[in-house]
Amino acid sequence: MSESAPKSDTHVETHDTAADNSCEADVKTMAHELSRDAKQAENDDPAEKTGLGSVSLRSISLHVEGMACSSCADSVKAALSGLEHATHIIVDVESGVATLRLAGDADEAVQALRSQGMGATVLV
């Protein structure tokens, strides 16, 4: 009988890289869908719903690091709700993405989360 050569770890590493790329693609897809939902919500006359009048709001998507449960999502939503002129806040635990409409800069949202001990990056 011939002995087969020992299996290389190369396949495992390639598989892990492929899984990472797949996960990253899933996050980007979810962020796109959430951003689309937020943009669709802006067509619901945000000035009427928020009383902001002529304040210009923009859609922001954030990847929140380590968000793993509904309690985390509640904390994210609470932190973002504390921002002036933040509306249409949607938090998705599964993808780790939060989207919102905000009059301010995206860095304000990142800082609001960091001040609560959560890491966040702006998704483009």
UniProtKB/TrEMBL annotation:
It comes from the Eukaryota. Residues 1-18, 25-48 have a biased composition (Basic and acidic residues). GO terms for molecular function: metal ion binding. This is HMA domain-containing protein. Keywords: Metal-binding. Residues 58-121 form the HMA domain. Residues 1-52 are annotated as: Disordered. It holds the Pfam family HMA. It comes from Gracilariopsis chorda. Signal peptide: none annotated.
